[in-house]
Write a structure and sequence with these properties.
The structure holds three protein chains of three kinds.
Chain A: H1 15-19, E1 35-41, E2 47-53, H2 55-58, E3 63-68, H3 69-74, E4 106-107, E5 113-119, H4 122-129, E6 133-138, H5 145-148, E7 164-171, H6 173-181, E8 185-193, E9 205-211, E10 216-221, H7 226-235, E11 245-248, H8 264-276, E12 280-283, H9 286-292, E13 299-307, E14 313-323, E15 352-360, H10 375-393, H11 397-404, E16 411-412, E17 418-419, H12 424-434, H13 440-449, E18 453-462, H14 470-475, E19 484-490, E20 496-500, H15 509-521, E21 528-531, H16 549-576, E22 583-586, E23 589-592, E24 598-600, H17 601-610, E25 624-629, E26 638-647, E27 654-664, H18 671-690, E28 722-726, H19 743-760, H20 771-781
Parallel strand pairs in A: 1-12, 10-11, 14-15, 20-21, 27-28
Antiparallel strand pairs in A: 1-5, 2-4, 2-6, 3-5, 7-15, 8-13, 9-10, 9-12, 13-14, 16-17, 18-26, 19-20, 19-25, 22-23, 23-24, 26-27
Helix pairs in contact in A: 10-19, 15-16, 16-17, 18-19
Chain B: E1 10-16, E2 19-25, H1 31-38, E3 57-60, E4 63-66, E5 79-81, H2 95-102, H3 112-126, H4 132-138, H5 150-165, H6 167-173
Parallel strand pairs in B: 1-5
Antiparallel strand pairs in B: 1-2, 3-4, 3-5
Helix pairs in contact in B: 2-5, 3-5
Chain C: E1 5-7, H1 12-21, E2 26-28, H2 34-39, E3 47-50, E4 60-63, E5 66-70, H3 75-80, H4 82-87, H5 89-95, H6 101-104, H7 109-115, H8 122-129, E6 132-135, E7 139-141, H9 142-145, E8 146-148, E9 151-152, E10 160-166, E11 170-177, E12 184-193, E13 196-202, E14 210-211, H10 213-221, H11 246-264
Parallel strand pairs in C: 1-3, 2-3
Antiparallel strand pairs in C: 4-5, 5-10, 6-7, 6-10, 8-9, 11-12, 12-13, 13-14
Classes of the chains: A alpha+beta, B alpha+beta, C alpha+beta.
């Protein structure tokens, strides 16, 4: 391992601009003549828009335009779409309701954009927005997914009777019934996976610009996947042909899924820019983001697990209602189906699994992928069932897990996935050592002496990442392929530019992609630049989500580097007057096997471009190669997280006093960055378990509409985190990478709730386990600390 | 009086990163808007509208404040230090900046300027030997969504120690 | 925020004059509550009167047997003042629990008291210590000052200039935070000065800060946590929201009062 190659904890190349305040986030960019957009949003969860009077607003100082859904329709701007087709059990396609970028005739959630004011300044646009008169006829609303299908519930979209988008299932219901009939013990749980607001600290933003001479649009946008944004805005929204639209994702301040999707605001920014003939900027305020960014999770599930007399799992069944909100967001349909039910086997050999999922519309903000996306929900179901099952059967929770682990690979689960490699025992064993599991009883007694209840909880999770083989996802309904692209441009001076279709918004690609190339080419990492996030520079790419940039994006890079090496060897062969087959490449040097003849990397690069040593008929000049890599399988990161909590029985406050994570991400490019990804994921998972939760009232108003009411984890919510890794190489990609971006968020919630319920002695505890919720649960158990 | 509403502008002068600056501004201009829009110092960020996230923290007269929660007009004559002024341009980084890089105390970088300005102020008030508990409590007004705070806490402890050796660095920049 | 006219008076008299002339004007002290409210357009005062240039409104001094704090004194200054730390350490500690370090560098005691947020900390200290609020017109006892949620005895054009705290023999504040906002979900301030016992509660009451007579009676017999064993207050009249039901808040009042008394006498509860 070199100091900057694969496996080295290289300090990040991108950091200097961020720590000196010289990064370029979308809101840091200003275009000449720029105007500002302010959206008028529905204050009602469900209402018919009877009329919109824009006259008074249009007459306000500095107002350039006041636009509504009527103008949008007149300009034939298309609807937003959901790009993953799910079919119901009965074969019918999902019921995708029209989703115009500005509501036309009806508002379906609080925050639904109804009009937009374009002003010379933001303050003027906002002042004028208050003068837009909208006559609403308020309709009854439904926010609770469990209520959406009930008789008498308000009907949100005509296309979807009973607000039901699809009724989908996976697995063999009859075989599961048979398995349950032979069970010695059945554990049953009702689970609510709480709705979350992603809240990347950089709010979403967009600048639209139109060049009337060239007929081209440019969009600067906080997006995780600029090419997909361009494709959708061109092909479905119809804003401009794809080749006339450039999308730039500059520095992006966190995404966690919420910046994957194509939203109304960027569409409107582009459209308005053309209408007013000026660049138009929109930046979300935080309280606006709560109403405008896709939320995550929001499942209501009943789940059961059947065990035999020894504690071997015989089967699992689950029925889930998934809230997709008022409209189907870009990838929403896939989250509670193929990203959820396919992971219900966990790390275990479960012979039979059956899962039914009903997706419903409600009068709430659309719900889509948020860090983990489906897999945290699956892990929570499986890991709660196993933990509770162990407690009910009086077995050690670690032992019960070990007994049921998948031990032979590849392993075909009953729910599509083929696990390729792993060693679940190894991560469990290592985590138990690091967490000093043996010392827990002693620590529990010490806590009791301080009047505290101590608990410990496990989560041995698995996820499917490296998303994903295009053919496979195509057969499951995806509207796109999920390969990735890379291009390697070698300059005549030997420096290198890597263009990737992946997009970094905190993941450190400028460093890790350079590490892969530095190791391969034997050149200093400082001679390598990574280019991403601009559709004019990178030809195409699928973007960053689903922990895919390493497993898929870097695999594309490796493929491109293979081609670079092959071409460079041809150049070197001409320079060294040797047969191409005799050229060896190592540590940045081309040499002729068995001789002392060699050429340095820089010389070969130069010769590729000056082309003096070979004829253009034999060999093309230049050294630039591109590659598309389509994965052959998902990857399966897995591991064990152990949480230890101390509960104050008087206040219900739960302090996380210990966290141990042992993950298997396959080969790690930069352990420092990977650990950082784990830390961040755990914090979001702890947030879900302890304090985060989007709450709607019965009228569909978002009660938790700012950081004053929606609890973001702070530094003092979290303990120092013990993070370690075990490694089984991923066999399905050239670098052996599994992916690490979502593990923490997937693993953590179950570990926290397993620990708290262990401490307080009841399983009746929903997330978020706030002090009030824990105190209320304790009133039923009356458990007090036992020092004995 | 009402006729003046909105039309009124006022002049404000202050020192920002050692340079005197003046602006004619709408009275409702917040310091963060003055920095970002008038002075084009875009290193100071806005991450919320309830004065909680801390992405906008700068120093005013040597103390950390939230630049989203003060009017520029309130700071007539004040001495303001932003992330851009913490270290000389193209010069060596401030020890706290260096510590954030060395300890991977940032991911997306959006909260980072506020974190660093808060951290430098923390050292001024709490000294160079900062334990885990103190740092976590002191970060009450700074939210990070990426790092889980683990490496931020490490970075601040290391940066605080490093600032002991170079107390002049921060003074000079102020 | 809505447009406003900005005033910078140099004296309290000028500020009062501006207030008298403009009924809807707002005084801007540290601005840590007013400005966020204006940013969200929940408040839109047409006139904003900035107190920054008025001299003599900040400072901390011992005068006789009371501690006097100027209205524009920041939370940070109260928190770190050796005078406060010696005279009423619980007050210094309370100031250090408000908001966050950056907020404490701007937020002021006068602003906090005048706003009387039902979840703020200072009202508990004022009521729990029997403070006197001094204005440009008069002296108001804390017991008479806080008249309900966001409501005080202040008259139009009346401006807080100082707050005077008698020195207690023993005092402590216990705060249980709303996890999201970090305001007090419930905060209890207890003090003992001679035979006078005070227990003041913030965060819990639907009508703002209040005293708990039953707890004070019990503590008069013996100022110890045991005196409050098993005691709680009725849930009626408590705030109830997603962060805490009335029952939970009422329960916390008892828990925190016991802990505060324990802290005041230097024991763990």
């Amino acid at each position: 391992m070199s100091a900057t190659g694969i496996g080295a904890a290289v300090r990040r190349k991108e950091d200097r601009r961020f720590i000196t305040g010289t990064g370029h986030y979308t809101d840091d960019i200003n275009r000449p003549g720029q105007a500002y957009a302010y959206f008028v949003r529905s204050p009602h969860a469900h209402a018919t828009i009877k009329s919109i009077d824009t006259k008074a607003a249009a007459a306000m100082p500095g107002v350039l335009a006041v636009l509504t859904g009527a103008e949008l329709a007149a300009d034939k701007i298309g609807n937003l779409i959901c790009g993953w087709m799910i079919h119901s059990k009965d074969g019918s396609p999902m019921k995708m309701a029209a989703h115009p970028a500005l509501a036309n005739g009806k508002a379906c959630h609080v925050g639904d954009p109804v009009a937009v004011v374009i002003g010379e300044t933001l303050a003027q646009a906002r002042d004028a927005a208050e003068k837009v008169k909208i006559d609403y006829a308020v309709l009854p609303a439904v926010a609770d997914p469990a209520a959406a299908q009930k008789p008498g519930a308000p009907q949100i979209h005509d296309i979807a009777p009973k607000n039901t988008i699809y009724q989908w299932s996976l697995g063999d219901a009859k075989a599961v019934d048979v398995a349950f009939k032979s069970a010695n013990h059945v554990t049953k749980l009702d689970i609510i996976n709480n709705r979350l607001v992603p809240n990347a600290i950089e709010p979403r933003a967009a600048i639209g610009e139109y060049d009337s001479g060239a007929g081209t649009f440019t969009l600067w946008n906080t997006t995780q996947n600029p090419h997909v944004a361009r494709l959708v805005i061109a092909a479905f929204i119809g804003m401009a042909p794809e080749h006339k639209l450039r999308v730039i994702a500059p520095d992006v301040g966190g995404g966690f899924g919420s910046k994957i999707f194509i939203y109304p605001e960027e569409v409107v920014a582009l459209w308005a820019a053309k209408r007013v003939g000026r660049p138009v900027k929109w930046v979300a305020e935080r309280s606006e983001a709560f109403l405008a960014d896709a939320h995550g999770r929001d499942h209501v599930t009943h789940a059961e697990m059947a065990f035999d007399a020894e504690g071997k799992i015989l089967g699992l069944r689950a029925k889930t209602i998934a809230n997709l909100g008022a409209y189907m967001s870009t990838f929403s349909s896939s989250v509670p189906t193929y990203l959820y039910a396919t992971l219900l086997s966990g790390q275990y050999e479960i012979p039979q699994i059956y899962c039914e999922v009903d997706a419903v519309y409600t009068n709430t903000v659309p719900v889509d992928a948020y860090r983990g996306a489906g897999r945290p929900e699956a892990t929570f179901v499986v890991e709660r069932l196993v933990e509770v099952g162990a407690r009910e059967m009086g077995q050690d929770p670690a032992e019960l897990r070990r007994k049921n682990f998948v031990k032979k690979f590849p392993h075909q689960t009953p729910v599509i996935m083929m696990y390729d490699a792993g060693d679940y025992n190894a991560s469990l064993k290592r985590a138990m050592e690091l967490a000093d599991y043996k010392g827990f009883a002693r620590r529990k007694r010490e806590s009791a002496r301080q009047g505290k209840l101590r608990g410990i909880g496990f989560s041995t999770y698995i996820e499917a990442c490296g998303i994903a083989p295009s053919q496979a996802v195509g057969s499951l309904g995806a509207g796109v392929g999920l390969w990735e692209s890379a291009e390697v441009r070698v300059n005549p001076t030997g420096s290198v530019e890597i263009l990737t279709g992946s997009h970094a918004h905190g993941q450190g690609h400028e460093t890790t992609f350079a590490q892969v190339a530095a190791e391969r080419l034997g050149i200093p990492i400082d001679n390598i630049s990574v280019v991403h996030g601009d559709t004019d520079k990178v030809q195409f790419g699928m973007g960053t989500y689903g922990s895919r940039s390493g497993a898929v994006g870097m695999s594309a890079l490796v493929k491109a580097l293979d081609k670079i090496e092959a071409k460079a060897k041809k150049v070197a062969a001409h320079m060294l007057e040797a047969a191409e087959g005799d050229i060896e490449f190592k540590d940045g040097k081309f040499s002729v096997a068995g001789t002392d003849k060699s050429a340095a990397w820089g010389d070969v690069a130069l010769n590729a471009y000056i082309a003096h040593k070979f004829s253009g008929q034999e060999l093309e000049p230049g050294l630039k190669e591109g590659a598309f890599y389509d994965p052959t399988n998902f990857t399966f990161p897995a591991g064990c997280h152990i949480c230890e909590v101390e509960v104050d029985p008087e206040t219900g406050n739960a302090d996380i006093v210990g966290w141990t994570a042992v993950d298997d991400f396959g080969v790690v490019i930069n352990p420092m960055i990977v650990e950082g990804q784990v830390h961040g994921g755990i914090a979001q998972g702890i947030g879900q378990a302890l304090c985060e939760g989007a709450v709607y009232d019965k009228d569909g108003q978002l009660v938790t509409g700012s950081f004053m009411d929606y609890c973001m984890p702070r530094a003092d919510h979290l303990p120092p985190l013990k993070v370690d890794m075990t490694v089984t190489k991923c066999p399905s990609n050239p670098l052996g990478i599994k992916g690490c971006g979502e593990a923490g968020a997937i693993a953590a919630p179950a570990a926290v709730i397993n620990a708290i319920t262990d401490a307080i002695g009841t399983e009746q505890l929903a997330m978020p386990a706030t002090p009030q919720a824990i105190w209320a649960a304790l009133q039923k158990t009356n458990r007090m600390p036992q020092a004995a | 009086m009402a006729a003046q509403k909105g039309a009124q502008t006022a002049t404000v002068s202050m020192t920002v990163n050692g340079k005197p600056v003046t602006g004619d501004i709408d009275p409702r201009t917040l310091l963060v808007q003055f920095l970002r829009e008038n002075l084009r110092l875009t290193g100071t960020h806005v991450g919320c509208d309830t004065s909680q996230c801390g992405a906008c923290v700068v120093h005013v007269n040597g103390k950390a404040i939230k630049s989203c929660t003060v009017l520029a007009l309130q700071l007539e004559g004040a001495d303001v230090l932003t992330i851009e002024g913490l270290a000389p341009p193209n010069g060596p980084l401030h020890p706290m900046q260096e510590a954030f890089r060395e300890n991977h105390g940032l991911q997306c970088g959006f909260c980072t300027p506020g974190m660093i300005m808060t951290a430098v102020d923390m050292v001024r008030r709490k000294g160079h030997d900062l334990d885990d508990r103190t740092i976590r409590e002191e970060l009450e007004g700074n939210i990070c969504r990426c790092t889980g705070y683990h490496n931020i806490v490490k970075a601040i402890a290391a940066g605080a120690r490093a600032m002991r050796g170079s107390a002049t660095t921060s003074k000079a920049a102020e | 925020m809505y447009a406003f006219t900005f005033h910078r008076p140099q004296t309290v008299r000028q500020a009062a004059g501006l207030l008298a002339k403009n009924g809807d004007a707002k005084l801007l002290a540290g601005g840590q509550t007013l400005l966020p409210t204006m940013k969200l357009r929940l408040a839109g005062p047409p006139q904003v009167i900035d107190m920054t240039l008025i001299e003599g409104l900040s400072g901390i001094e011992m005068s006789g047997r009371s501690l006097t704090i100027g209205a524009m004194t920041t939370h940070n200054d109260v928190n770190t003042s050796p005078v406060v730390q010696q005279a009423i350490p619980s007050l210094a500690k309370l100031a250090g629990m408000i908001g966050d370090p950056a907020v404490r560098h701007r937020g002021t005691i006068g602003g906090s008291i005048a706003n009387n947020d039902p979840n703020a900390d200072y009202p508990a200290a004022c009521l729990g210590l029997g403070a006197t609020i001094i204005t440009n017109k008069r002296r108001i006892k804390a017991d008479d000052f806080f008249t309900g949620m966001f409501s005080t005895a202040l008259e139009p054009a009346e401006i807080i200039t100082k707050v005077s705290f008698p020195i207690p023999k023993k005092a402590a504040y216990q705060k249980f935070r709303n996890q999201a906002s970090r305001f007090a979900l419930v905060g209890v301030f207890v003090s003992k000065r001679g035979s006078e016992i005070r227990v003041a509660v913030t965060g819990a009451g639907a009508n703002g800060v209040f005293r708990v007579a039953s707890f004070e009676e019990a503590l008069k017999k013996r100022f110890a946590p045991k005196s409050l064993e098993g005691m709680s207050i009725p849930a009626d009249g408590m705030n109830s929201d997603i962060h805490g039901s009335a029952e939970y808040r009422a329960h916390l009042v008892g828990v925190l009062a016991r802990r505060a008394v324990a802290e005041a006498i230097g024991k763990s509860a």
